[in-house]
């Protein structure tokens, strides 16, 4: 049965996940590339704690990055801050923008 954390990312549009600034696959060690360790910190991941960041494709092929909730929350917060400064609908109401709303939900769901 999928966890709430896994379900949360399935609700997030790819445009919002793209703003999290994932590292390139060829820069990752084997544990990070296969999702055993968070993309951004040394936290070992389990099915219950990993946040699935969706399927990615690139020059090196397909991969399925994963991260810990706190790192996703911090990345989403930084992406939201940057996005809101450039998005006219978000200036008035972040709820009017699909990307801004998705990033806000990621921040709320994964903050510590």
Strand-pairing-aware structural class: mainly alpha
Measured on Cα atoms, how large is the radius of gyration? 14 Å
Shape: globular
Strand order of the largest sheet: 1-4
Describe the protein.
The protein is 46% helix and 11% strand. With 112 residues, it is mainly alpha-helical. It has a two-stranded antiparallel ribbon. Strands 2-3 form a two-stranded antiparallel sheet. Helix 4 packs antiparallel against helix 6. The longest helix has 18 residues. The chain is globular and about 45 Å long. The chain starts with a helix and ends with a helix.
Topology overview:
Elements lengths: L3 H7 L3 H5 L11 H4 L16 E3 L3 E3 L2 E3 L2 E3 H18 L1 H5 L5 H13 L2
Antiparallel strand pairs: 1-4, 2-3
Helix pairs in contact: 4-6
Give the gist of this structure.
By secondary structure, the chain is mostly helical.
Considering the chains and any ligands shown, give keywords for the structure:
two-stranded antiparallel sheet, 112 residues, 46% helix, mainly alpha
């Amino acid at each position: 049965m999928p966890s709430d954390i896994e379900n949360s990312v399935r609700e997030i549009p790819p445009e919002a996940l793209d703003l999290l600034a994932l590292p390139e696959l060829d820069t990752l060690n084997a544990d990070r590339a296969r999702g055993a360790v968070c993309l951004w910190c040394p936290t070992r991941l389990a099915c219950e704690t990993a946040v699935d960041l969706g399927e990615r494709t690139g020059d090196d092929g397909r991969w399925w990055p994963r991260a810990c909730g706190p790192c996703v929350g911090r990345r989403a917060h930084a992406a939201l801050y940057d996005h809101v400064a450039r998005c006219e609908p978000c200036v008035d109401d972040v709820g009017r923008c699909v990307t801004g709303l998705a990033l806000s939900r990621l921040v709320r769901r994964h903050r510590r």
